[in-house]
Specification:
Number of strands: 17
Strand order of the largest sheet: 1-14-13-17-15-16
Largest sheet: 6 strands, mixed
Shape: globular
Radius of gyration: 22 Å
CATH superfamily of the largest domain: NADH-ubiquinone oxidoreductase 51kDa subunit
Length: 443
């Protein structure tokens, strides 16, 4: 069974919502839509307070290279434009919309009819992806159109589709493949055309047998799309690990996948591209898994961007009494939600509610020199060594120890019997190294 060649671990899966069909979440009375929901330069507001908007209307425009458009997920009135707290506790500029109905902008196809014929050429596809504000739904929120504007002299051999969903608890991609496989496959065909490649490899972990079967059966209609079952091992869905598992090509340190002839997108992004190109629909909603061992009603939900997180939790029975932490994303790479009034964003793939017992850290003790963190690191780093340098604030030494290659998967922290805050120290190292590099560039 194919997999990556170095490190990795196998946390308890807890795919508690695997059999929960996707439900459409009701529209909130008021929504808060952040002006920028992508990696890169901020988008520029094109609406103002008091303005009436429709679903799909442009709210903020991408005017710089690495940037993404942002559209209204609702129809109603903009009550104010002000700072709002995101789920991490930071204040960001947001558009407050009083939701009045569900009137879509003219020209957007809201039907469920499958549109198979791809009429746009490669340049038109890339422009449409940009216009519709599509970003990577694997977590990074990198503007998708940028990946298809290949640097001069670079050529892609493979389109890699990440349908691994290796994070424990998450099941949104699994349900997408079971319920909307053909939409995703047409999206993959569109991305192949945009990239000018003949081959697309779709990696799915073997713990999703129904999804593998469904996708394999339907992929026979589409030339050049291969569904590849992968060994269940975390972090199989990390970009460099997935590329190696599928192609045996290794992305060099500090380089991008195109260096080895690959472009990688999430399966959710492929579906969003289908809607953008075939239906003229911008990215205004996503599938979200609300889960946790103590949650009364665990669900997979189709949620519009800007929905208050608290309302999603209430819809599923509210916070359990033993709640210790609420996480956006999975337990390995997700981030704790500091304010439940914060809205969902384009990349909100899950809301995980963990008990006090589950979310408490091990008591920290001295390093046992067991080497487990080194064994499981998928990037071949020495986490304990980098962590010790970070504790002594030796940032240039952490840089020499390849700290920037860390993908923040959390394998080291998960396996450490001494409860050392390895991931925290690696992140701290990366932040400081980035600042050092910025200062060097100014000289």
């Amino acid at each position: 069974m194919k997999t990556f060649h170095r490190g990795g671990t196998h946390p308890e899966e807890n795919k508690l919502t695997n059999d929960c069909s996707i439900e459409v979440f009701p529209l909130p009375k008021q929504a808060v839509v952040f002006v920028s929901q992508h990696l890169g330069a901020p988008a520029t507001l094109v609406v103002e307070k008091g303005e009436k908007v429709k679903v799909g209307q442009l709210l903020a425009k991408a005017e710089q290279f690495i940037c993404a458009n942002n559209h209204s997920p609702y129809s109603g009135t903009i009550s104010k434009i002000d700072l709002a707290i995101d789920f991490t506790g930071y204040k960001k500029t947001a558009i407050y919309i009083d939701v009045e109905n569900d009137e879509w902008l003219e020209g957007i196809d809201t039907s469920n009819e499958i549109v198979r014929d791809i009429k746009l050429d490669s340049k038109q596809i890339v422009e449409k992806i940009k216009e519709m504000g599509i970003v990577g739904l694997g977590g990074a929120a990198f503007p998708t159109h940028i990946k298809y504007m290949l640097p001069e002299g670079k050529k892609a051999d493979y389109l890699i589709i990440n349908a691994v969903e290796c994070e424990p608890y998450l099941t949104s991609d699994n349900r997408l493949m079971l319920e909307s496989a053909e939409e995703a496959l047409i999206g993959i065909e569109i991305l192949k055309k945009a990239l000018g490649v003949e081959k697309a490899l779709v990696g799915i972990e073997k713990n999703k047998p129904k999804a593998i079967e469904q996708m394999t059966n339907l992929a026979t209609k589409y030339k050049g799309i291969e569904i590849v079952p992968l060994k269940t091992k975390y972090p199989q869905g990390a970009e460099k690990q997935l590329i190696y598992a599928l192609t045996k090509r290794e992305v060099p340190s500090g380089k991008l996948p195109i260096e080895v002839g690959c472009v990688v997108n999430n399966i959710g992004t492929a579906q969003a591209v289908y809607y953008a190109v075939q239906k003229n629909r911008p990215l205004i909603q996503n599938i979200l898994t609300l889960t946790g061992k103590s949650v009364k009603q665990r669900k997979n939900l189709l949620v519009r961007v800007g929905t208050p997180i608290q309302s999603v939790i209430d819809y599923c029975g509210g916070l359990p009494e033993d709640t210790g932490k609420v996480i956006s994303g999975g337990p390995m790479m997700g981030k704790a939600i500091s304010d439940l009034s914060a809205p969902t964003v384009k990349t909100t793939s899950a809301i995980l509610i963990m008990s006090n017992k589950e979310s408490s850290r091990k008591e920290e003790t001295n390093c046992l020199r067991c080497g487990k963190c080194v064994t499981v690191c998928p990037m071949g780093l020495q986490p304990i060594h980098i962590a010790q340098l970070a504790e002594n604030r030796l940032w240039e030494e952490t840089e020499k120890s390849s700290a920037m290659d860390c993908i923040e998967c959390g394998c080291c922290l998960y396996t450490c019997p001494a409860g050392r805050p390895l991931l925290d120290l690696l992140r701290l190292s990366k932040n400081n190294i980035s600042e050092i590099r910025r200062q060097r560039a100014k000289r």
